[in-house]
Amino acid sequence: MPDALSDYRALITELKQIYLLNSISGLLGWDERTYMPPGGSGLRADQSSMLARMSHERFTSAKVGDWLASAQESELVRDPLSDAAVNVRETRRNYDRAKRVPGELVEEMAHTEVLSQQAWAEAKKRSDFTIFRPWLEKVLVLKRRQAVCLSGGKGSLYDALLEDYEPGETADHLRAVFADLRGPLVELVNAVESSDRKSPAHILERNFPVAKQEQLARMASEAVGFDFSRGRLDVSVHPFCGGCGPTDVRITTRYDESYFGDAFFGVLHESGHGMYVQGLPPEHCGTPRGSDLSLGIHESQSRLWENFVGRGRAFWRFFFPKAQAMFPEALGNVSPDDFYFAINDVRRSPIRTESDEFTYNLHIMIRFELEETLLTRDLAAADLPAAWGEKMRKYLGITPSDDAHGCLQDVHWSGGGIGYFPTYTLGNLYAAQFFQTARRELPGLDDSFADGDFRPLLDWLRKNIHSQGRKFTPAQLVRRVTGNDLSAEALLAHLRGKSAELYGVTAGNSE
Known about the structure:
- The protein is mainly alpha-helical.
- It folds into two domains: 2-155, no CATH class; 171-503, Neurolysin, domain 3 (Orthogonal Bundle), CATH 1.10.1370.30.
- The chain is 63% helix and 3% strand.
- The chain contains 21 helices and three strands.
- It has a three-stranded mixed sheet with strand order 1-3-2.
- A hairpin with a 2-residue loop joins strand 2 and strand 3 (248-253).
- Helix 6 (129-151) crosses helix 7 and helix 9 runs parallel beside helix 10.
- The chain starts with a helix and ends in an 8-residue tail after the last helix.
């Protein structure tokens, strides 16, 4: 036991050192997408690839394997939910996966992803997929090689990559999840479109000066619980949450002076991600016990604050007077009811990040189906724009006007994020179940929101989700917190409630 304890402590020390390396990479990644000059991409690619190689070599070293083996055979892991057992279990899972991937491939992927993201940004700016196409092809070659390494040449290549984002999830299960959602969602969207009630969405398309948008968004972010002494807000082409860890969280957004919703709800979304990171147990920082569980759980936090709180009527009982005071010309003559209806407008949009709660998951289904076929070579990168347009017409009944509003709108594939997109829908499902449970366990939650007090909900999330780290699997956590397995019921109930309230229609009950 003394030797095992010593080995375990050595393992934790090494994990925290590797965490520091990765936190530097996180800061470089944030800078790359916010303030780095275009000419710095080559050097940044070299920096990022060097750090990735260093981190990989340290983590996959023989001594880490020896320390793991020693701890696994000791009394330290007798209780499977003890801190030590969680750290050993999750480190073993990650160690075994990392050992399958050669260091030179890790280095090449990191280098390519920096250059690829820069090419994507330029391609999106010009709305020209041909600029990005060769980089997408390079990324796909590297991700296939990684997937083959991870899978050992057996099983689904997509599942091998998906495991990095949502442990235990599979493409087959995702298809079943999407099948449960697709029919009811399409039925709901069609019913809403046929309603005589129309949202006054045009009131969000007036003049909203950027400086005041930022001021209101920061006010809301701080009110719901984002700690600006441990975080900051900046601008990027594609909003994201990054940085170094719980004490240095960087969130970004983008502003449109002629549209209110994009930046405001984007900041709430990224604040949800940021509060999750800030709420991780600090005493376990750098270890699995102090790490976020999965991207699906991460997304549940952002979507919960953006939609279930931020698009709720109670939230705007507190914030609408502040918005009116900030934008008297745009909102001074707008009623609270009209504003609430406007921010919950349902319409088919070509842009995922600007889409409403009803159509959002249809966007995710498109990306899931496309990236799976790109990975398996059933779809050539050159054919992506046409395939994207076809899927948009099939699921949303619209055609993208250009590449920027089509296959270039998301940054994920340029950074190697194959398998990432499905976690958005999982996050919506998790969020619905979590919020449904929180409302049941916290009577008077709407009254708290209307008073500008969001602490009860944040404390509940801290206790039940943030503080748990990777103690449980995503499926186990959802079951423990809500008492039920993951399903579409809570999300569909939420959407049906809104469609009945705002549009006077009830639909989407087919299973």
